[in-house]
Amino acid sequence: MQTTFTAEQLRDPDTARSNQVLRTCVHCGMCTATCPTFVLLGDELDSPRGRIYLIKDMLESGRPATEAVVRHVDRCLSCLSCMTTCPSGVHYMHLVDHARHYIEETYTRPPAERALRRLLSLVLPYPGRMRAALAAARLGRPLGGLIPGASMTAQRLRAMLRLAPGALPPPSPMQAPGVHRAEGERRGRVALLTGCAQQVLAPSINEATIRLLTRMGLEVVITRGQGCCGALDHHMGHHDPAMRLARANIDAWTREIEGEGLDAVVINASGCGTTVKDYGHMFRTEDPALAARAARVAGLAKDISEVLTQFDYAPTRAAPGLTVAYHAACSLQHGQRLTDVPKALLKRAGFALREPAEAHLCCGSAGTYNMLQPAIAGQLRARKLANLDRTRADLIASGNIGCLTQLAGERMPVVHTVELLDWMAGGPKPAAVP
């Protein structure tokens, strides 16, 4: 693809990076076949190729984003299926992240949407605030169906109330800052990102991770000062809040790296993992010392499935006789290119594994997407659940809290992969398992 950025424009590092990405695209259109929004809507502008043209024109012109550009970019899930499909290696993630930042800098959204996005940014990355908000939402949940109108604001309010769980588990003391000692001889030392939403919605995931790793001889550190990875803000184009949250994590983990050392930063929410593994890129233009620390942290970041494989996970219980439908989170299969590792671990643990049709398509969660684009997210959820249901499995396993939340509440229970692996290696049976 030819580009016409000026020398002045290319002095901006983000524009220079977007120029590199754009020039990699050969217009082949193979990405359209695996893009969830194009599959649903059939509009070229709601495909990666269409969005690339819109973003190119917006950035080259230097003009403020238009309503049409914003509408089509907002509909992108950032599922990154297009990156898996692309034969030319177009790094769409960096391009669309830049576009979202540019949109937030140049476009004035309607007041109701600005307020909602600001609210999500102020609440979701902070477990205490999120717990309080969900408690309030739980009270309003029965009234969700009474919210009138077909406006986007009404749809979003109804979606947020639907997503609020009927009950919240109590906070887990295992997630507090501290050190969980390895059982037996110490084989390694890792930090665990406890996350933000996951801490509130499903602390059992972090508990299972800590139990399993310590039984395998790994010392697990919950570092003081860590928090949200920044992904939720980053994908809404909120650059400064995302960088602030990411910097806090980098500082917290660097203290451990330079102290007793770390063999890995373990992440059990794949959406977070994709972002942390990109910290080196996000901080590439910052102070060189900070950029180096960010790159070091990104290099240590590993999904829990990678760590379990590295340290030779082995079950200690007999096969449970259950069939698992494995839902591959987009951030794991497309963002991190981890496809076979989680499935191999589930098979090693003794589960019969089935994969649904259209496994490459997103379930519609995508961070805040199921709240900001509820109609499309709802269609994708229904499509995914129908495909999962056809597997006739006993339960669904996935490696991302967003997917688990999105897919919950239907015939099959949903469980994080690590909870099943912990159970088969001596931990308690997950509450959702039949």
- Read across the widest sheet, the strand sequence of neighbours is 1-3-2-4-5
The whole-number mean of residue pLDDT values reads 95
Instruction: Give the total of beta strands.
Output: 9
| Helical residues, percent | 40-55%
How large a portion of the residues is in β-strands, by DSSP E?
A: 5-15%
Radius of gyration of CA atoms, rounded to a whole number: 21 Å
Shape: globular
**How would you classify the helix and strand content by structural class?**
alpha/beta
Whole-Å distance between the termini?
53 Å
Low-confidence stretches: none
**Count of DSSP helices?**
24
Most strands sheet: 5 strands, mixed
Describe this structure in words.
The protein has helices spanning 7-10, 13-24, 36-41, 48-61, 67-74, 81-85, 92-106, 111-123, 127-140, 152-163, 197-201, 203-215, 231-234, 239-258, 270-276, 279-282, 288-300, 304-310, 330-335, 340-348, 369-372, 374-389, 401-407, 417-424; strands spanning 178-180, 188-193, 218-222, 264-267, 301-303, 323-326, 352-354, 395-398, 414-416. It is α/β, with parallel strands linked by helices and 434 residues long. A five-stranded mixed sheet has the order 1-3-2-4-5. Strands 7-6-8-9 form a four-stranded parallel sheet, sandwiched between helices. α23 links the parallel β8 (395-398) and β9. α2 (13-24) packs across α7 and α4 packs across α7. The mean pLDDT is 95.
